[in-house]
Design brief:
Oligomer: heterotrimer
Largest sheet of chain B: 5 strands, mixed
Distance between the termini of chain B: 53 Å
Radius of gyration of chain A: 19 Å
Number of strands of chain A: 11
Order of helices and strands of chain B: EHEEHEEEHHHHH
Helix content of chain A: 25-40%
CATH class of the largest domain in chain B: Mainly Alpha
Bound molecules: flavin-adenine dinucleotide, iron/sulfur cluster
Largest interface: B-C, 81 and 84 residues
Number of domains of chain B: 2
CATH topology of the largest domain in chain B: DNA polymerase, domain 1
Chains: A alpha+beta (316), B alpha+beta (222), C alpha+beta (733)
Helix content of chain B: 25-40%
Structural class of chain A: alpha+beta
Number of strands of chain B: 6
CATH superfamily of the largest domain in chain B: [2Fe-2S]-binding domain
Strand content of chain A: 15-25%
Strand order of the largest sheet of chain A: 4-5-8-6-7
Shape of chain A: globular
CATH architecture of the largest domain in chain B: Orthogonal Bundle
Distance between the termini of chain A: 51 Å
């Protein structure tokens, strides 16, 4: 870990300014992803701006009947919130399917959205990796790719977005609120927040330099039955091979997003329209462009079968 | 983040811990192997800076107030183990992947390896040493002995801190991955305990015995 | 003391303390965080500096240059030791002929190439990353076991067993199986990474370290630093697990010693977890070609087994043939072990080395054979039990109750209620299956010594370089001493793991408890003889009971024997070769499991597990049971998740941390039951005890794989049995 200076910001805008003011500065929230990567010098900030004391740790109701979740709300607090459990069950279920009790106590809403891939080559600084060291090549495409993306990747990178919470937020049409160093705020739909790798896998999201996530908003509840089915080898404390976040209505319509299979939470509203016709109809569209490797091609049938499991549970 | 200098920000806007003089210093890149291209810059320059990259922090550990000067990079785990020489908290992986470093901060369990000591100003930290001593054991510690809830003992302090927190979290109604009805009350079933303990790996495989120990303590509290 | 004949009725048969489920005496220290592990010995020596190791970035080739200038100039740095400034430090122990450090040649990924020492851990870690190392990569190496000649059975390895005429017996067998099975490389992944604090005093060095075999380690360190063994002290009272990973000195100890010598201060080094996987050792991969022939009645007539495995050095690999030579009957046998030299890190012993991978494969093969024969897999195994060494029928097993293990297990588990039709049992979304497998592991012993001291207050102190890696050595050794001296366990204190104490068996090969307790017995008998001498009576006429020694009607409290002085005695147990000449001394078991496989997703979960063990006298049922449930848990890992994935281009284990290399967590482990048969084996030790800690792992994974087959009808022969290997054959949804 490189040496760095450290400061506690006093307000969201001040935090954004502090990050902007220095070359190579980073926000630190829970620290559970950033410090992991800093120890390995995959991330090498020389200045950390601690955003924990900014009062961004509350969940409030919005005028639109939804919720506004502060960026510093912990995963545990968010999952345990009565309103979330009642109206956005998929979100609670996704969060508690992730990491461990200890990590969820520290992990924050903003930090969780921004967690980086678990691609094992990204984690090994001796190995070529376009995401970590642009231009060096991708070790995974012809290497150990079992856990990596079967869709949405590029010739430059097939890393998966590893998180769970964001997959649920994607089916809930969440929006991300930010503030920049000038005090400007903006709202980014979660669909646009994470980026596909294309030729620049190092660019993972929409945020601009210094821009701080202040909150995530959820629109009013859409009802339906909520599911999050996360598939992994180990029954807990493991990242998804595939996960399905779904909201299923009485009439068989609903919403679905996939985790663990793409560089971002994977949802396609036109594919979703097929839900009444069953899992394979949905997946024919949703995964039409899948380009799996030999090692991860199982994810394509797995995604379909996992959705089928959810749909049959919804019926049962 | 690539940024130009943004004017208008004054030092008063920031509460700075450690020096902020690092502003635009170009830190060296690592040469790890083939993949990295840039050569390391001078260590001398680093040395000049290093002294300023430390902070003072005050918190309580097991009820005792502690004021320490730490390298900003020092994790809470290393502050406990190395600075304060409280070695009951273990380092198994240093990456949040095993749970051996579990401690309680302000009443909530966390992995002390993935948090910086400097981020814990005024916090209340409880490590295994704060639960009980060999002569005055916490009921959970006693139950681990009774049920042989360990073998090599290395994950044990973390397991015990988590076990205590697990029962508290169930009591507080925090849902888990195995909670069938997340809107209803939560029972301390075997699977609820197992799931909540899953962030603490025990390679010796004492899991069934640890479960028995936790259920024993749960019974005592009921 | 020499053990030259089978044990007769002796003090252990009264079993007042031995055999009792006593709580661990080291428990209060462990649960309170006060048991000191290697890296934590702040009190051991002042002025400790931090060493941070650097591993090679390539798997094979050479280092042409290491530029240390930036690191040297970094804050806090006290010194740097690079591999280029030393001749190779290698072959420190016969069973582990690897290179730890030194020289420009790179033999495997993450081979230790430098250690950077600084005042603080943070400084050392940061400076380590400033080393600029130039490599010359050798592109020619093959890292794919399946591409070696050995994998296709094309090797010049001599058979380890060649009895009768396998080829013609197999050719003419009524029922045959001919299949290939694979097991992946596995990591010990004990919770405490390798760690050492080293301090020099002139040409004497002390290492506070985490090592299972203190005497091997002492000799190895002497060789590494070219000093006399007497100038080396190792201290390892607590180990955070080992499972074989700490049988030998590893690079942490070598680097700590070199660095401490160079900077002139004590230095502590721990291997960062992501470096453990490729720097140290692992269970080798195997490709096993198995052929079994049987007659119509299910009697095995032919066993062929060919094992290919990766090994960097002449001693290495996972020798999966080990259990196959002796477990089942069969007159015609051809069994070959063929290690293939590969530039992965050297593979070496991991818990039940050989048996684990061997039985992972062979016990699936037995299941397949039973099915071909239309026999119950329990019955098929019973039909092929043997009471003699199948390779040498003149030698009987000393005490073998494998059949009873199977029968007790089947009855307890409710085996007869299972649905024999694969894929035919459902519980909601889950397909349910049951599996069985046999367990077999020899019961080796090693010479083992101890020193016992009768204190003036009548309590006893035991000293030995024996280690407790979680196995319960402290407790069973104290129980042994208490039993022999007629004390309670509270009267016994015990110090372990220090090379200043008498040399013991150490912890490995499941010989630890059996040998070390016998060593304590030898020392206690020596003490009893001294007491007898003082009382001027024959030792055989004395009874040690209730803290006193009785002779006829006179009873003398032990506290009065020494008259205010302590009485010390030291001895070792040495095992005569009758043990191997007259009999095969082994342990046996049977595992039964219930598994559930999600009919849609193929997720595999274990629902219940039962182990029945026949391993001689159980010294402490509480700690022995823990050994077995722990082994069963490791077996779950091997069955359904553990695999160190090899990158065949770069030549390293890719998933080299505890997030990438998954081992079981709490939720993976269901209720576990363990039954110990009440057996004693007089051929084994004076205590008639054998090991159990490795036996518990043998066969577990196969029982699970067989259960998955029973649940789904999908036979997976490549471990781990993960959902991607079955999903294509699950029923349509
Ligand atoms: C062993 C292990 C297992 C895990 N398993 C799972 C899993 O199964 N599922 C899962 O979803 N996650 C998992 N995680 C990931 C974990 O959820 C994330 O590490 C965590 O959510 C990150 O949150 P944080 O607050 O700690 O982020 P930090 O580490 O503090 O920050 C992460 C990044 O976000 C930036 N950042 C933080 N806050 C803001 C903000 N407000 N505005 C702008 N930028 C910000 C930081 O600069 C940094 O780049 C696992 C982690 C570990 C270590
Ligand atoms: S998949 Fe992406 S993260 Fe992984 S090695 Fe390739 S470029 Fe790097």
């Amino acid at each position: 870990m490189r040496a760095f200076s450290y400061e506690r910001a006093s307000s969201p805008q001040a935090a954004a300014q502090a990050a902007m003011a220095r070359d190579n500065a980073k926000f630190i929230a829970g620290g559970t992803n950033l410090l992991d990567l800093m120890k390995l010098e995959i991330e090498t900030p020389t200045h950390l701006v601690d955003v924990n004391g900014l009062g961004l740790d509350t969940i409030e109701e919005t005028d639109a009947g939804g919720l506004r979740i502060g960026a510093l709300v912990s995963n545990t607090a968010l999952a345990a919130d009565e309103r979330v459990r009642r109206d956005y069950g998929v979100l609670t279920r996704a969060i508690v399917a992730g990491a461990s009790g200890q990590l969820r106590n520290k992990a924050t809403t903003g930090g969780n959205l921004l967690q980086r891939t678990r691609c094992p080559y990204f984690y090994d600084t001796n190995m070529p990796c376009n995401k970590r060291a642009p231009g060096t090549g991708c070790s995974a495409i012809e290497g150990f790719s079992r856990s990596l993306a079967a869709i949405g990747g590029s010739d430059f990178c097939i890393a998966t977005y590893p998180g769970d919470m964001a997959v649920a937020m994607r089916v809930l049409d969440a929006e991300i609120e930010t503030v920049d160093p000038d005090g400007e705020t903006r709202t980014i739909p979660i669909a646009d927040f994470h980026k596909l790798p294309g030729e620049t896998p190092e660019v993972e999201n929409e945020l601009r330099p210094g821009e701080l996530i202040t909150a995530v908003t959820l629109p009013a509840s859409v009802g339906g039955r909520h599911f999050y089915h996360k598939v992994r080898d180990r029954s807990s404390y493991a990242f998804a091979l595939v996960s399905v976040a779904a909201i299923v209505n009485e009439d068989g319509t609903g919403r679905v997003a996939l985790g663990g299979i793409a560089p971002k939470p994977w949802r396609d509203e036109t594919a979703e329209a097929e839900m009444p016709n069953g899992a394979s109809a949905v997946m024919r569209r949703l995964l039409a462009d899948a380009k799996p490797t030999e090692e991860n091609q199982f994810k394509v049938p797995l995604a379909e079968r996992t959705l089928a499991a959810v749909l049959s549970e919804a019926k049962g | 983040m690539k940024r130009e200098h943004n004017g208008g920000i004054t030092r008063r806007d920031l509460m700075i811990v450690g020096a902020a003089t690092a502003a635009t210093y170009a830190f060296p890149k690592v040469a790890y192997g083939q993949a990295n291209v840039e050569a390391p810059a001078s260590g001398e320059a680093l040395k000049a800076l290093d002294a300023s990259l430390k902070s003072e922090v005050s918190f309580t550990v097991n009820g005792t107030a502690r004021d320490i000067a730490v390298d900003n990079r020092t994790t809470l785990l290393d502050a406990l183990r190395e600075t304060l020489q409280l070695t009951g908290t273990k380092k198994g992986c240093d990456h949040g992947q095993c749970g051996a470093c579990t401690v309680s901060v302000n009443g909530r369990r966390i992995n002390s390896c993935l948090t910086l000591a400097v981020m814990h100003q005024d916090d209340e930290i409880t490590s295994i040493e704060g639960l009980g001593t060999p002569d005055d054991l916490h009921p959970m510690q006693a139950a681990f002995i009774e049920h042989d809830g360990y073998q090599c003992g290395y994950c044990t302090p973390g397991q015990i801190c988590s076990a205590k927190a697990t029962l508290e979290e169930i009591r507080a109604g925090i849902p888990s991955h195995v909670t069938a009805d997340i809107t209803g009350p939560i029972e301390a079933s075997d699977d609820e305990i197992r799931e909540r303990m899953s962030g603490n790996i025990c390679r010796c495989g004492a899991y069934s015995n640890i479960l028995a120990a936790i259920k024993d303590v749960k019974g005592q509290n009921a | 003391m020499e053990f030259n004949n089978p044990a007769e009725n002796n003090v252990f048969d009264r079993a007042k303390v031995i055999g009792q489920p006593l709580r661990r005496i080291d428990g209060p220290l462990k649960v309170s965080g006060t048991a000191p592990y290697a890296y934590e010995r702040h009190d051991a020596v002042p002025g400790q500096a931090y060493g941070y190791p650097v591993g090679s970035a390539i798997a094979k080739g050479r280092i042409t240059n290491i530029d240390t200038s930036a690191a040297e100039a970094a804050p806090g740095v006290l010194g740097i030791v690079t591999t280029l400034e030393h001749d190779p430090i290698e072959n420190l122990w016969d069973y582990d002929p690897v290179r730890h450090f030194g020289g420009d040649e790179i033999l495997h990924y993450h081979q230790a190439v430098a250690v950077v020492v600084a005042e603080t851990f943070e400084q050392a870690r940061a400076a380590a990353n400033l080393l600029d190392i130039t490599y010359e990569r050798d592109e020619s190496a093959n890292f794919d076991l399946s591409k070696t000649p050995q994998a296709s059975g094309d090797s010049d390895a001599d058979p380890v067993q060649n009895v009768g005429d396998f080829e013609s017996a197999f050719a003419s067998a009524a029922v045959k199986l001919d299949q290939t099975y694979t097991t992946p490389a596995e990591s010990h992944s004990m919770m405490e990474p390798h760690a050492t604090i080293a301090a020099w005093d002139g040409d004497k060095v002390t290492l506070w370290t985490s090592n299972q075999m203190i005497e091997w380690g002492r000799q190895s360190i002497a060789k590494a630093f070219d000093i006399a063994p007497d100038n080396v002290r190792l201290d390892s009272p607590y180990l955070g697990g080992g499972f074989g990973a700490k049988l030998f000195v590893r690079s942490d100890a070598v680097m700590a010693g070199l660095a401490a010598r160079k900077v002139g201060r004590p230095v502590k080094v721990t291997l960062p977890r992501p470096m453990v996987f490729n720097n140290t050792t692992h269970r080798g991969e195997t490709i096993q070609h198995i052929r079994i022939g049987a007659d119509e009645n299910g009697k095995i007539t032919a066993i062929g087994h060919h094992n290919a495995t990766n090994a960097l050095t002449a001693v290495g690999g996972e020798n999966a043939t080990l259990p196959i030579v002796a477990f089942y009957a069969g007159a015609n046998r051809h069994i070959v072990n063929a290690p293939a030299k590969m530039h992965l890190p050297n593979s070496n012993a991991m818990r039940a080395p050989g048996e684990t991978a061997g039985l992972m494969a062979f016990e699936i093969a037995m299941d397949e054979m039973a099915e071909k024969l239309g026999m119950d897999p329990v019955e098929f195994r019973i039909a092929n039990d043997t009471q003699v060494d199948p390779g040498n029928p003149d030698v009987p097993f000393s005490d073998r109750h494998f059949v009873e293990c199977l029968e007790r297990g089947a009855e307890t588990f409710g085996w007869s209620n299972r649905n024999t039709a694969p894929g035919a049992t459902r519980d909601g979304a889950w397909m349910i299956g049951h599996g069985v497998a046999g367990a077999y592991r020899p019961a080796p012993v090693q010479k083992s010594g101890a020193r016992v001291v009768l204190e003036p207050d009548g309590t006893l102190r035991v000293e030995s370089d024996m280690t407790d890696i979680g196995t319960g050595s402290y407790t069973v050794m104290a129980q042994t001493a208490a039993e022999v001296m007629g004390l309670t366990i509270d009267d016994v204190s015990i110090d372990l793991g220090d090379s200043n104490y008498p040399v013991s068996a150490g912890s490995g090969g499941q010989w630890g408890a059996a040998s070390a307790t016998a060593g304590v017995y030898a020392a206690c008998v020596a003490l009893r003889e001294q007491i007898a001498e003082r009382l001027a009576v024959a030792e055989g006429d004395l009874t040690f009971e209730d803290g006193a020694v009785r002779h006829g009607d006179t009873s003398t409290p032990l506290s009065q024997i020494g008259k205010g002085e302590e009485i010390a005695a030291e001895d070792s147990i040495e095992f005569g070769d009758f043990r191997s000449k007259e009999a095969l001394v082994s342990t046996f078991g049977a595992h039964f499991v219930e598994v559930a496989v999600h009919a849609h997703t193929g997720e595999i979960r274990i629902r219940r597990m039962l182990a029945v063990c026949d391993s001689g006298r159980i010294l402490n049922p509480l700690t022995a049971r823990s050994q077995v449930i722990g082994a069963m848990t490791m077996g779950v890992g091997g069955a359904i998740m553990e695999e160190m994935a090899v990158d065949h281009r770069h030549g390293f284990f890719v998933n080299h941390d505890l997030a990438g290399y998954e081992v079981p967590v709490h939720l993976d482990i269901p209720s576990q039951e363990v039954i110990f048969l009440e057996t004693t084996d007089p051929y084994s030790t004076p205590l008639k005890a054998k090991g159990v800690g490795e036996l518990g792992l043998c066969g577990v994974a196969a029982a699970i794989a067989n259960g998955v087959y029973n649940a789904t009808g999908v036979r997976v022969r490549d471990y781990p049995v993960t959902l991607d290997k079955i999903i294509g054959q699950l029923p349509a949804v």
